[in-house]
Amino acid sequence: MTKTALTSLSADQLAERLTDLRADYTWLKEQELKLDLTRGKPGADQLDLSEALLRLPTGHSNRTGTDVRNYGGLEGLPEMREIFADLLGIDPGQVVAGGNSSLSMMYQVVTWMLLKGGPDSPRPWSQEETVKFVCPVPGYDRHFTMLAELGIEMVTVDMHADGPDVAQVKALVADDPSVKGMWIVPTYANPTGAVCSTEVAAELMAMPTAAPDFRILWDNAYAVHHLTDQETKSADALGLAAVSGNPNRPIMFASTSKITFAGAGVAALAASAENKAWYLQRLNFAAIGPDKVNQLRHVEFFGDADGVRAHMQKHRALIAPKFAAVDQALSSRLTGLDIATWSKPTGGYFVDLDVLDGTASRVVELAKEAGIALTPAGSAFPHGNDPRDRNIRLAPTFPTLAEVETAMAGVAVCVELAAVEKLASS
Amino acid sequence: MTKTALTSLSADQLAERLTDLRADYTWLKEQELKLDLTRGKPGADQLDLSEALLRLPTGHSNRTGTDVRNYGGLEGLPEMREIFADLLGIDPGQVVAGGNSSLSMMYQVVTWMLLKGGPDSPRPWSQEETVKFVCPVPGYDRHFTMLAELGIEMVTVDMHADGPDVAQVKALVADDPSVKGMWIVPTYANPTGAVCSTEVAAELMAMPTAAPDFRILWDNAYAVHHLTDQETKSADALGLAAVSGNPNRPIMFASTSKITFAGAGVAALAASAENKAWYLQRLNFAAIGPDKVNQLRHVEFFGDADGVRAHMQKHRALIAPKFAAVDQALSSRLTGLDIATWSKPTGGYFVDLDVLDGTASRVVELAKEAGIALTPAGSAFPHGNDPRDRNIRLAPTFPTLAEVETAMAGVAVCVELAAVEKLASS
Predict the structure, then answer these.
(1) Cβ within 8 Å, pair A103-B286
(2) Is residue B53 part of a domain?
(3) In terms of domains, do B140 and B182 share one?
(4) FRET label pair with B106: which of A393, A398, A399, B310, CA 20 to 30 Å apart?
(5) Confidence band for A1, pLDDT divided at 50, 70 and 90
(6) Which domain holds residue B384?
(7) What is the pLDDT of residues A36-77, one digit of tens each?
(8) Which pTM was predicted?
(9) Which of A106, A243, A113, A260 is nearest to A185 (CA)?
(10) Does one domain contain both B165 and B314?
(11) Which Pfam families match (chains A, B) (predicted)?
């Protein structure tokens, strides 16, 4: 049965619908739920997949005879760098395998551009009057809060299914030398699930920029986090940049946080030879070396990149049903009502939900009162400001499947109730 | 038999001595040694003491039920913070347990003072015309290279057996608001082995400073690294600062790098409530949380602070003979010659050797040609500049005892040869 779009209902019909929905919502609150869809965290069953890590490594030397229990080795174990290189489709020589956090490596790059400038900077960014970053929206909240903390202005562009809006980006970077950088989550983007196409990536790597030291922070957090058989291959950012004559433009990041243990995995950075040397030179003043025991632990656990790929199949088996449950719950109540659209991601950690303009905050509020925690409305936008107040990021991996089903049925009620409240009052 | 001071020898006697020493040195080179006394690294036998860590943790939740395999917990596991607090004589509430590197935590503090300023800063340090640090010398080379990298000027004061020269420090900080901070390794200092007394610490924490945001970076890397039964207790920097009305002055650092695995241990920062909140607020933009699996691994391994203390006894048993061998080798050749003095540390990782003025570089060069790698002369001074060219840092923990004996006998030859070369040519 096709439902009627809520926008075509009469005032009386809306009032009647509102009464029904309020009853549904009252019932929902009576369930006294305590569910959390806020953060992209692996579920306990996913973490269990890597339990063998806790008994590794079996030895304490790597293949080159380095005692991983002692100091040194700033760029990480070669075996670990090879695994990342294979997964990211790049050369091991371009990779630095680091500590437990790719976010920290991104933060290092931005602060070092501020304090020292890059190899191609006229001066450190902190000596510029203004520094701006292009931010595709919706995007990853921690990217934006990092920039805000560091005093970097954010200008937004639209995120499409194939990546950032290239025309908008080009217009921003062409003439303004204060636009120094840009964020991209190229594969299964947070939160939209978009995959940056090779065409879009090629244009971004080749486009003229007024700033000679323009950086694209290519946060490939979900490179191997497929949810379907269609295993998307990430665009070759480093290769495209090199052939375009802009080898230093992209800096790539990845980690095993959502592959093994979140916060106890291994992170990586990859870049041009010049950028990598620059990064290691700075790092040498800040650290003696990464946790190589944990790197060897991961190397023994996976064996090689194919070991990672096989492991990701197990994650998919656990979480794909949760994503299906989100779609099912939203579809069964909202399809045809013309008040919401949502992503059907083929990878990554999020479902991106757009509700009726001006109602996202209300949906989050209603859900909260019913015991369902959602990421604050607007958090996928710089300074938390969603100009249309319509975007909500859903993170279904951490709760159990049953919890996702219950929570999402509740969210769907809240989405419809907020829409009818608004339509009935206007 | 008491030897004759070389300085009292006649020209002929010196020439004769030079001939003998050149023969000794030729013999030394023929041994084709390949020994390294450069870095304060634990020996493989010390690392073996912690081998059980590789099979830990047995569980994956801490006592409060946190799944250590997942994200979060920026200030670290409470159990880990309690162990550090007990060892450092402070309150667990003052401690942040972090990643694998206390050096990285120091670097964060300095960069955040530059980029953001502290809770008591008139403005970020990067907006000051000049920022200076007081550097006791000889000191830790990585402290100095970090400041140089970040554009901070260094002014030196003398390091005595009971800590930095307080009168010199007071004179530097009293009227010059650009003097923003100071390094101290308070316990078994790198490289002199000095222990900062409570009296000196009290004066440093209480002294008037022109800068309202003056920081003492209290790098207590060797707090529990005793070499004798006389187990020195570190001065209570945080307590002394608080009673002096300067609670935000000290920031304390420590790590298990030279307790368990170097580079795969757990680091900690401790500070006033205001400083700690400031640190965590900044950290929140740069990281999601430390490696809690590794923290739980350490908590299970030690049990409590007494477990750490018992573990340090095992280290002492392994390395105290190496320190004795250094002293023995230097004494047997050099005592009475009046060309060298050296420390007899009661803890820590180094022996501090002062040779005849103007010969340290030559000693290092001679040793290198004989296959004995020493830390570059001057490395314990800002910009590597030892004004008297006399200081050499010896790090005897990494080689075996036999290697230390061989290497140090060779170093003693080089020290005497360089001295005689100089005296004979003047």
Answers:
(1) yes
(2) no
(3) yes
(4) B310
(5) low
(6) 6-46+310-425
(7) 999 899 999 999 999 999 999 999 999 999 999 999 999 999
(8) 0.97
(9) A106
(10) no
(11) Asp_aminotransf
